[in-house]
Amino acid sequence: MGEVRTSAVLFAHKEFEDMDRNERIRATYQHCCLRYVVNEKMTNQSLRERFKLPEKKTATVSQVIAATVDLEKIKLADPEQPSTRYRNYLPFWA
Fold it and tell me: How confident is the model at residue 1 (pLDDT cuts 50, 70, 90)?
């Protein structure tokens, strides 16, 4: 009979500035998933707070969000929302 097991990969804390592009995308996806399971949606502000970035880094966070959307790891909660300021995001599978 085969073995049944679960594997988990833990990532150590890294500052936003020390992350490469793939790590930032993974962290964005994970943040979006965590927000979803507590019945909240990810926003630019929630991600900036998660990364402990000031408001002046809004554009940088928007670029990471856009890259994560482009890779189809997250999606717009409301595709009809025209304003980027009020956009919310969900994991791709939600």
Answer: low
Q: Distance between CA 81 and CA 86 in Å, rounded? A: 7
Least confident of 31-35, 45-49, 83-87: 83-87
Do 21 and 68 meet the contact criterion of CB atoms below 8 Å apart? Answer: no
Q: Which pTM was predicted?
A: 0.87
DSSP annotation of 77:
S
CA atoms within 13 A on the CB side of 74: 31
Rounded to whole angstroms, how far apart are CA atoms 77 and 94? 9
* SS3 assignment, position 89: strand
Written out in words, the top-level CATH class of the domain with range 19-91 is mainly alpha
Enumerate the domain spans of the chain.
19-91
